[in-house]
Structure formats: structure tokens, C-alpha cells
């Protein structure tokens, strides 16, 4: 190979063809021979070209004009374009610690071994903090430090393993699936047509229908079978060879290695028997085996498409263009990916919002059903946050862009699903590891079988070994876990439930205690001021002060204050938000500067410890250091589905505990109505955290909450759940997000994960039972290659069909027996 590479003139760099330095420069091995290069940069690039299998760059370049030759192959130049910051904004997210994360779509993965190989290759790179691969969806979720490693380097590493990885774009996913479906349909069609023809001949030969014919005619039938089986082997079975070659190149065997060996061996031996007119032929096994495997892969592809369609359909709702405001109140049409934060866009009635932003129009009716499942439009006021992908229903509106592309809530939902698909429950990881190990043991077993049968019956040694390779291929075991995990994610998406991590599937099995926040969780979160009283009879001044203070809070109890009709809010400074307690500030009032507080009664009690509340039910109090200014009774209604869901959970012997920061009397009233017997009220965030930690000593805990003060306890719980309308901190800390904001999602979560665990165990048990049971039968020579091909394919299809049960429309409407 070294002689095929054009050599530069003596004393010139092998890569850039410029003169070498006086010390001779550096050395790099290309084409199994050392090459002299002028600098470290040329050495690094040449080494990358060699590692990526792009040696043709040196073979075919024109060295007659060194100043006009490219210094990088076109393949590497294309990958380096993904390092551009403007381009990365379209498909990457920036984490709080400065790391970047994205989802890559990988072509060529066929089983768990491929996923394991890519994970290991990426995780060994400096600067990569996490890499999770899902073989079912063929995606890689990766996080990296941009100052230590470039995205193009990660893409090149994957390319070096023989796979093609590019940033995942949901908008083009449907086209990609169509292309891949055509890829399989063509190969299935060829294999199916050939199999029918070869099987007709094989049946005639097997059942003695041509015994009275001479040997020449029998050999003629063999040649006809060879003619039909050849395109199956060379064209239809091509995906298996490519996958096997990649795994061998990476020194990590996958299940396509024994498949390829079996196909090539059966075809080769049959072709040899045809030429010499002696022996046995198994062209029908080659054709049938290929056909059944391709059908299994095709059905697996369809299952993948159904699993990932939900999030992809969300992203496809975004419009391609937006109307951006320019000078003099005019608008220009621009691509959505060209919008910037603080741009102002116009959205006409009936159009979809292109980005998250702040509503500038007085009010707007927005249909948010694609995010929440609620079909009725939501009335938003000026200053409210509106979301990309929602539908403007009433009138033309103006929106100031606050988040674009990967920063939108819609993109975050899709990212949550990608994250869940990339993660694997521990049982699934064990199954994938077992499948990887099984391939190696299978090859050893096949070699031993051939050796033993060479002594017993040399004429049958090859065919028995071939049956062992085919029958014991762990295809079903490789499909067992990823199809079940993808199925439960698809099932939960139907309910608007998004998993952040699939570890929750396993953990929920042992959960007996469910701790539930009250405000915004058991109640609807739609607060209103039911009653108010003012000890100094100055309601106007007190309300103006309350409005000014509560504008700084994101707590649900602050919402009704923000909509109060106040002409002149009070002037404040030094505003501080005390999480789980209230707000304090310096009030510039008519009597001078005063410290003022609004919040829970216990927060005010620091200033007024002997206070006897005039309003016993008041849960928000406004006061200065010297006097109480106002009592407010802020209430909301119980969720319509809370009572039925909690009743179903109690029927399953779950221990339900209400944990809230509200007053004991308010908490007891809600608990009595819902049938909750254990109530812990008037808790600070630290109190909630300590309580959950105490409960975890007795077993795993499922925590459900939605407020800012629930963030720490949601992170502490073994499994945590929140809602789409929850505070950002709660959504970031939770393992599960119910986008439709219905409490019944708790029951759906428990029933769906319980069913997925049963199906996952059934899949693994069946796959192991089949593989371990078929081994002695195949080794003893009781299975022909033809029967082995059918058995292996049927075992894979059985596992796939079992997992597809998770895709059926669920009948249950609440929690079901685990």
C-alpha cells in the first residue's frame, strides 16, 4: 500500500508538500510506512486521515501544484463545519456548567454491541463527560466540554469505527425513515422472490419428487438454485456483512458476525457441492435465513419509528419562517433559525408561534394542546410567557423572543425524551452485556462442535456447525431490552408523560411510599384571593404594597396578587426572596423607609411573635416591623382527578403522605377531602428534605411536587415527578415530567412502568430459554440449518411482538395493579 501513495519531492512535507525544516520535522505513519511532515499540525491531520480510512486523499490528489491542493479531505472539512458556533445553536444545548450537549443520529447500528462500542470509544476521550447510545433509536446523547474537545472530533471518532454520525434533526427524521424503509424493502423483495423460487426446487428435492431423474437434471436444479441464491447473498445480505466488518475492525464482535459466517459458509459449501456434483446444498436456508432476518430488522425499524414519532412531531410543528419586526413597524420574513433573542415577531391568528417569548399584546388566546393536551385555549395577558409550537387563535399578536431553537420548552421536551431513550435500566444493561458475551462464546462453541463432529462424522461436521451458528445467534436477546424500553417511553408519551431517565422504571418496582406536595400538585394551582382584611383600614395602600412585593416571586401563591387592579404599586428596594417563606424589602412609603414582609404567617411571626391572627385561615400576611397591614386568604381548588387517583393508589397498598409548607388547618382540610391520613404541614424546604431522607431509611420514595421550594426534595427522592407547569427548578430536578398537568399521570406512570418491567423480564427469559435450550439440540445434530434459520428468526419476532404490546392503545385510565 505504501508504494501506491504519491511521494513528494525530496525534502518536502508529505502532507502539505512545503519544504521540511532543517531538523527534518516530524514523522507520521501513513500506509504502513513512515512519512516526513513539516509540523505538528500536518502530523495530526495526516494521522487523522489515516485513522478515518481516508487514505484515498493522498492516492488521488494532484501534487504538481502544491499551492492549490487542499490540506483536508472533503469528508473532514464537512465535519469541521459543525464546530461553528452559529451552526451548533441549531442542535446543541448549553448546560449550566458550560458543557454542551446534543443528540447525534448514527447510521449503521444493528445491535447492543454497536451501541456499547460507540459508548466506549467516546467516553475514553478527554473532555467527554457522558455518552449514552440507544441502539433501538440509533441515537447518541453526548455531553462534552468545548474547550477540551471539538464536536467534529467526536464525529470523526464515530466515523473511525465505521458508523456515520450527524446531529439529529427531528424535522428530517421522517425522510430518513422513508429512505431506510426503501433500503430494507428492496432487499426484502429480492430475498423473498428468490426464496420462493429456491424453496419450490428444494421441496421437490427433499420429498423425492425428482428421484427418478438422472444426476445431471438434479445438478441442473442445483445450478438454478445457485443462480437465485447469489443475489440474495451479495445484495440482500449486505447489511449483515457491513455490520460484521465494522465490529471486527473495532475488535468487538456483534451478532452479525456469526450470521455472516453462517451465510457465507452455507453458500460456499453449497456452491462447491454444485460444482463437483456431490454433497448437500442449502441454498434455500441461505435465502430463507436472509429473508427472515431482514423482515425482523424491518419490523424493528417500524417499531423504532413509532417510538420516536411523538417528540419528532412536536418539533415539526414549528413553522419554517417568522415575521420579524424592522424599522417603522414593518416586518420581514426570515427563517426561524435566524431569529435572535429580543427580536420582536408578529404572529397572525391561526399561526404557530416560532419561538418562546414575552407577549407584548394586551392579551391573546393560545391553544397549547400540543404541549399540555388541554384543548381549550388559554388566555394570556401582556407580559406572560408564550411558547413555541403553540397556536395563536384570536388576533395578531406581537412577541419578544426569549428563547430560540434548542432553548425552547418544546426542544427541551424532545431533549428529555432523547435523554430517556439513551439511558438504560440496569436490567437492560445486563441483557446487552450478556448478548455481547454470548457472541464470543457462540463462536467458541461452534469451533468446538466442528472439532468434535470431525471425529464423529466428518461429512456432517460442517452442517452441524452451521446449524449451531444459526440457531444460537442471540438476536432475540439483543432485542429484548431496547424494544421494551422504547415501548414504555412511547406508551407514556401518549399520556403526555416524559421520562428523564429510564432508571425510574426499575426503581419504581420497590416504591411503597408516595410523598405528595399540596399546592399545585393535589390542587389545581389556579389561585384566587378568597378573602382579605386590613387592620388599619387602608386597603389601597396595603394592596399596592402586596402587588409590588409579589411581582418578585415565582411562587404559585403570588399569581393572584400580580393580577390585582392597582394603579400605583409601592416603591421598593433591597428586595429579597426567602424560599419557602416569603419576600422582604425596604418600602419607601409615606412615613419614610420601612422594612416590610409578605409571606407565610410563620415568616411574619419573627416580627410579631405574640400575634393572634384576626383571620385564622389567612395563609399570606403583610406586615412591617411595627404593625400588620393585611391578611389574605389565598385558595385554589382540588384537582378533579386527584381523589380517584389517590384511591386507586391506596388500593395498591401505597402509603400516601402529604408534605406541604401550608398551614396545618388548610392541609388537614384538603387531606380529609382526599382521604389522606398522614399530613406533615408548615414545612420549610429543609424540613421537607429531612422528612424524605427519614422516609428513605425505610425504603424508596416517590416524591411529587411542582414548586421552587420542592427542587431539593425532588432531587433527593429515589424517583421524583413534577408537571409541565411547574417551576423551572422543579422540572430540572424531577425524573418524570407530566406535560398535561393532570394528577392521573401518576397512575399512568406506575401502570406503564409495571407492564414494561413484566414484558422486559418476559423478553429476557424467553431469549435465554431459547438460546440455552437450542444449544444441546443443535450441537447433537438434531437441527438442520433450514430449521435453525426459522427458529432463530421466530424467536426474534416473538420478542419484538411481545414488546409491541406496549404500543397498543392503553385501556386503563388510572393506576392499575402492579
TrEMBL record:
Record PROSITE patterns: ATPASE_E1_E2, HMA_2
A UniProt-annotated Pfam family: E1-E2_ATPase
Gene3D superfamilies, alphabetized: 3.30.70.100, Calcium-transporting ATPase, cytoplasmic domain N (3.40.1110.10), Calcium-transporting ATPase, cytoplasmic transduction domain A (2.70.150.10), HAD superfamily/HAD-like (3.40.50.1000)
Residue runs in coiled coils: none
GO annotation terms (biological process): copper ion homeostasis
Alphabetical list of SUPFAM superfamilies matching this protein: Calcium ATPase, transduction domain A, Calcium ATPase, transmembrane domain M, HAD-like, HMA, heavy metal-associated domain
Claim: Ribonucleoprotein is one of the keywords in the record: no
Alphabetically ordered keywords of this record: ATP-binding, Cell membrane, Ion transport, Magnesium, Membrane, Metal-binding, Nucleotide-binding, Phosphoprotein, Translocase, Transmembrane, Transmembrane helix, Transport
Segments traversing the membrane: 188-208, 220-237, 257-275, 281-299, 434-456, 462-485, 764-783
CDD domains (alphabetical): HMA, P-type_ATPase_HM
Cellular component terms (Gene Ontology): plasma membrane
MF terms (GO), sorted A to Z: ATP binding; ATP hydrolysis activity; copper ion binding; P-type divalent copper transporter activity
HMA domain boundaries: 100-166
Main location, first listed in the record: membrane
Mode of membrane association: Multi-pass membrane protein
Localisation: Cell membrane
Membership in a protein family: Belongs to the cation transport ATPase (P-type) (TC 3.A.3) family. Type IB subfamily.
Xref: PANTHER family: ATP7, ISOFORM B, CATION-TRANSPORTING P-TYPE ATPASE-RELATED
Protein known as: Copper-translocating P-type ATPase
Amino acid at each position: 500500500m505504501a508504494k501506491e501513495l504519491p511521494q513528494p519531492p525530496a525534502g518536502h512535507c508529505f502532507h502539505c508538500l512545503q519544504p521540511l525544516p532543517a531538523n527534518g520535522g516530524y514523522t507520521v505513519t501513513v500506509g504502513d510506512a513512515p512519512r516526513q511532515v513539516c509540523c505538528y499540525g500536518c502530523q495530526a491531520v495526516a494521522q487523522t486521515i489515516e485513522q478515518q480510512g481516508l487514505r484515498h486523499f493522498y492516492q488521488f490528489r494532484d501534487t504538481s501544484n502544491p499551492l492549490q491542493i487542499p490540506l483536508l479531505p472533503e469528508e473532514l472539512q464537512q465535519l469541521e463545519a459543525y464546530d461553528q458556533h452559529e451552526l451548533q445553536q441549531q442542535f446543541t444545548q448549553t448546560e449550566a456548567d458550560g458543557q454542551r450537549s446534543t443528540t447525534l443520529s448514527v447510521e449503521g447500528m444493528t445491535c447492543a454491541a454497536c451501541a456499547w462500542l460507540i459508548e466506549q470509544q467516546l467516553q475514553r476521550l478527554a473532555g467527554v463527560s457522558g455518552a449514552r447510545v440507544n441502539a433501538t433509536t440509533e441515537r447518541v446523547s453526548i455531553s462534552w466540554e468545548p474547550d477540551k474537545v471539538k464536536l467534529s472530533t467526536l464525529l470523526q471518532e464515530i466515523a473511525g469505527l465505521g458508523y456515520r454520525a450527524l446531529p439529529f434533526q427531528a424535522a428530517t427524521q421522517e425522510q430518513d425513515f422513508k429512505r431506510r424503509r426503501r433500503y430494507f424493502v428492496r432487499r426484502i423483495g429480492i430475498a423473498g422472490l428468490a426464496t420462493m423460487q429456491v424453496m419450490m426446487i428444494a421441496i421437490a428435492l427433499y420429498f423425492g419428487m425428482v428421484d427418478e431423474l438422472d444426476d445431471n437434471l438434479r445438478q441442473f436444479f442445483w445450478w438454478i438454485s445457485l443462480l437465485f441464491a447469489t443475489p440474495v447473498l451479495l445484495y440482500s445480505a449486505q447489511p449483515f456483512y457491513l455490520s460484521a466488518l465494522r465490529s471486527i475492525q473495532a475488535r468487538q464482535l456483534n451478532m452479525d458476525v456469526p450470521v455472516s459466517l453462517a451465510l457465507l459458509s452455507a453458500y460456499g459449501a453449497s456452491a462447491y457441492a454444485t460444482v463437483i456434483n456431490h454433497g448437500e446444498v442449502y441454498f434455500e436456508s441461505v435465502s430463507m435465513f436472509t429473508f427472515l432476518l431482514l423482515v425482523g430488522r424491518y419490523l424493528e425499524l417500524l417499531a423504532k419509528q413509532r417510538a420516536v414519532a411523538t417528540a419528532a412531531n412536536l418539533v415539526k410543528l414549528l413553522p419554517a419562517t417568522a415575521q420579524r419586526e424592522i424599522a417603522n413597524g414593518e416586518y420581514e420574513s426570515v427563517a426561524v433559525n435566524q431569529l435572535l433573542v429580543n427580536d420582536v415577531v408578529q404572529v397572525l391568528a391561526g399561526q404557530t408561534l416560532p419561538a418562546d417569548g414575552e407577549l407584548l399584546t394586551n392579551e391573546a388566546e393560545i391553544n397549547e394542546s400540543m404541549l399540555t393536551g388541554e384543548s381549550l385555549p388559554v388566555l394570556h395577558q401582556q407580559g406572560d410567557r408564550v411558547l413555541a409550537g403553540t397556536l395563536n387563535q384570536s388576533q395578531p399578536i406581537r412577541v419578544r423572543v426569549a428563547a430560540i431553537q434548542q432553548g425552547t420548552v418544546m426542544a427541551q421536551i424532545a431533549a428529555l425524551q432523547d435523554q430517556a431513550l439513551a439511558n438504560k435500566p440496569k436490567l437492560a444493561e445486563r441483557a446487552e452485556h450478556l448478548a455481547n458475551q454470548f457472541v464470543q462464546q457462540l463462536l467458541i462453541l461452534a469451533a468446538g462442535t466442528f472439532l468434535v463432529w470431525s471425529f464423529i462424522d466428518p461429512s456432517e461436521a460442517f452442517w452441524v456447525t452451521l446449524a449451531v451458528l444459526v440457531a444460537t445467534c442471540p438476536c432475540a436477546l439483543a432485542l429484548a431490552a431496547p424494544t421494551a424500553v422504547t415501548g414504555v417511553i412511547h406508551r407514556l408519551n401518549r399520556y403526555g408523560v416524559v421520562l428523564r431517565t429510564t432508571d425510574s422504571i426499575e426503581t419504581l418496582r420497590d416504591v411503597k411510599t408516595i410523598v405528595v406536595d399540596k399546592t399545585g400538585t393535589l390542587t389545581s394551582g389556579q389561585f384566587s384571593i378568597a378573602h382579605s382584611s386590613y387592620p388599619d383600614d387602608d386597603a389601597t395602600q396595603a394592596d399596592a404594597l402586596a402587588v409590588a412585593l409579589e411581582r418578585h416571586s415565582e411562587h404559585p401563591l403570588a399569581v393572584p396578587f400580580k393580577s390585582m387592579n392597582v394603579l400605583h404599586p409601592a416603591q421598593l428596594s433591597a428586595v429579597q426572596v426567602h424560599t419557602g417563606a416569603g419576600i422582604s424589602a425596604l418600602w419607601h412609603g409615606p412615613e419614610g423607609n420601612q422594612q416590610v414582609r409578605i409571606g407565610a404567617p410563620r415568616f411574619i411571626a419573627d416580627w410579631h411573635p405574640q400575634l393572634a391572627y384576626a383571620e385564622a385561615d389567612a395563609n399570606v400576611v403583610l406586615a412591617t416591623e411595627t404593625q400588620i397591614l393585611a391578611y389574605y386568604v389565598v385558595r385554589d381548588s382540588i384537582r378533579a382527578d386527584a381523589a380517584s387517583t389517590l384511591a386507586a393508589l391506596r388500593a395498591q397498598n401505597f402509603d400516601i403522605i402529604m408534605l406541604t409548607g401550608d398551614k396545618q388547618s388548610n392541609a388537614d382540610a384538603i387531606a380529609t377531602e382526599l382521604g389522606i391520613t398522614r399530613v406533615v404541614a408548615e414545612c420549610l424546604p429543609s424540613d421537607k428534605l429531612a422528612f424524605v431522607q427519614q422516609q428513605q431509611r425505610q425504603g424508596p420514595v416517590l416524591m411529587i411536587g411542582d414548586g421552587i421550594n420542592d427542587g431539593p426534595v425532588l432531587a433527593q427522592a429515589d424517583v421524583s415527578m413534577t408537571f409541565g407547569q411547574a417551576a423551572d427548578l422543579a422540572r430540572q430536578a424531577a425524573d418524570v415530567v407530566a406535560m398535561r398537568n393532570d394528577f392521573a399521570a401518576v397512575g399512568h406512570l406506575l401502570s406503564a412502568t409495571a407492564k414494561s418491567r413484566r414484558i422486559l423480564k418476559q423478553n429476557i427469559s424467553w431469549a435465554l430459554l431459547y438460546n440455552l435450550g437450542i444449544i444441546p439440540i443443535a450441537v447433537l445434530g438434531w437441527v438442520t440449518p433450514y430449521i435453525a434459520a426459522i427458529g432463530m428468526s421466530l424467536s426474534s419476532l416473538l420478542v419484538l411482538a411481545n414488546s409491541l404490546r406496549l404500543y397498543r392503545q392503553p385501556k386503563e385510565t388510572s393506576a392499575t395493579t402492579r
